[in-house]
Amino acid sequence: MKTLNPSNQALISANFSSRSVSATGFSLPCLKSQVLCQRRKLTVVKASVAVEQQTQTKVALIRIGTRGSPLALAQAYETRDKLMATSSELAEEGAIQIVVIKTTGDKILSQPLADIGGKGLFTKEIDEALLNSEIDIAVHSMKDVPTYLPEKTILPCNLPREDVRDAFISLNASSLADLPAGSVVGTASLRRKSQLLNRYPSLSVLENFRGNVQTRLKKLNEGVVQATLLALAGLKRLSMTEHVSAILSIDDMLPAVAQGAIGIACRSDDDKMANYIAKLNHEETRLAVACERAFLLTLDGSCRTPIAGYACRDEDVLETSRKGAYAYDDMILMGEDAGKELLSRAGPGFFDS
C-alpha cells in the first residue's frame, strides 16, 4: 500500500490548520485534516486495486468454441495462433479465449456412432453456443460437420488442409496385408470398415472402437485389437506420427469427405468475426471441401452410410481417350480429334502457364 511520507503529512496538516470552520460562534481548528487525507489515501488505493482487477478480467475479443479432445484443442490453438498473427490487437494477452464445449458424441462412448443416430453428433452443442452468443466463432473438424448448417450461421473459412490419407497402426504388422486371417481391426468408421473388408475379407472389425486418438492407441497397446486405422492429419497435428506403421494410399483407402480440413464458423450477422476469419481462409481447401460436401449431400450421407470422397486439383493435367480401328486413316482421325478436344478444354494460353 502506498503511504504519504511524514513531510507530506506535515505540509498538508499545516495547510489545513491555518484555516478554521465557523459554527455558531465557535472557532474550531481543522483537526479533521489528517483524517481526510487518510480517507483520500485509502480511496486512491481502492481505485488502484479496481484498475488491476479490471485488467485481469479483460473481456476477450474472440471466444473460440471447440470440443475438449486433445486433437480438437490442437486445432483451436492453431486457429488462435493464426488469428494472433493477423492482428496486433488479437496478439494481446487475453484477446482470444478458448471455450471447451462437450458434445453428444463426446458424452456417449458406449455405443457406435451409427447406433446413436442423428446428425451433428460432434457439433450440435457448439452450434447452440454460437447462436446463443456464448462464443464468437466455432472451430470444427470438417468431416464432423453435417452437410447443412444451422440457420443464422455461416462457415466461410477453411484452414489449409492436412494430409487426407489414413494411417495403419499395429504393434505386430507393417501393413494390412501382413495381418493374419482373423485379426481384429478397431474402427468406428463404416467407411473404413467397408473398404477394409472389401479388400481383406479374412479380417474382422471391432466397430465400437470409440474415443480420442490417445484412448484408441491405449486400447491397441492393451491388446483389445491387433490394429487400427486413424486419420493421418490428426496424428500430424498431435505430433504423434511415430505410431504409424504404414500410410494407406488413396487408392487403398479413400478418405472421408472433408478429412484433414478445419472449418471455422460464425454467426451470419457478425461481420466483424467474418472479417477476422476471412483472413485465414485457404481457397483451394475451401473449394475441394465444398465439392466433397455437395457430393455427400446428394447422397444424403451420414455416420450411418459408408461414403468416401476426395476432390483435388489435378495439377492442370487434361486427359482423353479414343477407341477405333487399328488402321492408319482411323488412327490419324482419332489423334486429331483427341487433340482438338484437349485444345478446346484447355483454352488459350494453357501451355504458357
UniProtKB/TrEMBL annotation:
Sorted UniProt keywords: Porphyrin biosynthesis, Transferase
Domain of life: Eukaryota
GO CC, alphabetical: cytoplasm
Top enzyme class: transferase
Cofactor section: dipyrromethane
One BP annotation, GO: protoporphyrinogen IX biosynthetic process
CDD domains, sorted: PBP2_PBGD_1
UniProt key word Transferase: yes
InterPro entries (alphabetical): HemC, Porphobilin_deaminase_cofac_BS, Porphobilin_deaminase_N, Porphobilinogen_deaminase_C, Porphobilinogen_deaminase_C_sf
Enzyme Commission number(s) of this protein: 2.5.1.61
Keyword Nucleotide-binding: no
Described purpose of this protein according to its UniProt entry: Tetrapolymerization of the monopyrrole PBG into the hydroxymethylbilane pre-uroporphyrinogen in several discrete steps.
Family: Belongs to the HMBS family.
HAMAP family in the record: Porphobil_deam
Descriptive protein name: hydroxymethylbilane synthase
Record organism: Cynara cardunculus var. scolymus (Globe artichoke)
